[in-house]
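User: structure tokens for GH1, please.
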Amino acid sequence: MPYVKPVAQRTRRIKSAGNASPSANGQIIVHANGTPISGDPLHPEVPPPTITHTRAPTPDEIIDNLRFMFAVGIECSNPVVAGNQRVDQLEMTGHYEHWKKDLQLVRDLGLRYLRYGPPIHRIFTGPGQYNWDQLDPVMAEMLRLGIRPIIDFVHFGLPDWLGNFQNPDWPKHVADYAAAFCRRYPWVRFFTPVNEIFVTAQFSGAFGWWNEQLMSDHAFVTNIKHCVKASMLAMREVLHQRPDAIFIFSESTEYVHPGSPKMVPKATFLNERRFLSLDLLFGHDVSATMYQYLLHSGMTAEEYQWFREQSDLRSHCIMGTDYYITNEHVIRDDGSTIGAGDVYGYYVITRQYFDRYRLPVMHTETNRVSNNAVEWLWKEWMNLLRLRQDGVPIVGFTWYGLVDMKDWDSALTKIRGHVNKVGLYNLDRRPRKVAKEYRKLIESYASFPISSSKFPLLTA
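Assistant: Done. Predicted tokens:
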């Protein structure tokens, strides 16, 4: 049986002050009275500040002045499941009601960075039509608190009018949505255009659980190619308005162990297939086996070549690695899979992905149920420290999520309102022990440099 996976995401840490808005180079620019710069649609009356130009910092000075990106995420999945039922985690966990409290909890933890997915199915109401009424006050409060969001444009679901991920037209529409978002909130710099592309395709196109609810290689590949295309088109739109934008691609890092000698070939195939989304996204050549698989499953040679021609976008990217105890699997003789636990763990799996793509890394999702959460937090952190010590430029860590979730024990396929106790806070917004431990970890490493080496964060 396919595995069940929880969800989580990111945040980060840099100095901020008052009602500040980041400049093009990522610095905070405010007036002497603390009011934000012009260009902010929430404060259009504010005149532009006077900026005194100084010597540009060297790359080494930039690295030295940056700090590690501690983060938390607010769970925002919104797929459509059986019975055409929309699963809206922001609604199910009370965020629409308690959003102001949730943002304050982020700051109470000592965090500046929040992974946040505005509900696209509520905002994007039709071609060129957007309802920002619900989001405007949330974004204004983030600005006031000095929170820097990492915005998910698509998190497992599309607006009803776009249908599902098999629709070839949705990528260009979501790119338009990204452009509209940047026009309205030009101070946002960090984005995840499409969250966990591999999981989106696996659960929707291969397992038949979400959205199109199909079970075929053709549906899986079609989903992936549309998600990657949407990501690339959205990046182009964002970079047109914000050339210094950074894209943190949160992806599930997987591994399949063979349950017997007979299953070694199948496990080998699946361990190549797990890289497809990031291979296309980051311009990495696929193997001959995977190329044939793509061509036999609905991708054309021309489409593959188009993805290869977008490889310049990788210079704006950080590879987000999501790792849970459910990410490793054993494939049995009958072809079914069971959970393997953390046989290799975050260190080994992340090293495999880094060695393939050679991009800066952020641990963008992890959690465990409350009884195991503190031990898991420190275990993941120790794995991360070892990766840094061994030369992997890992720049951030995220606990996902801020509050408990619902129905992830069934991968959102059975909507029963079952609470998954994986948050730093429960649904009454009371802290769990892991919240105190995470705050202690953040305080202990408050001056942690963003990288233990001079490996450049980005090449653009």
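User: Anything notable?

Assistant: Residues 217-241 form the longest helix (25 residues).
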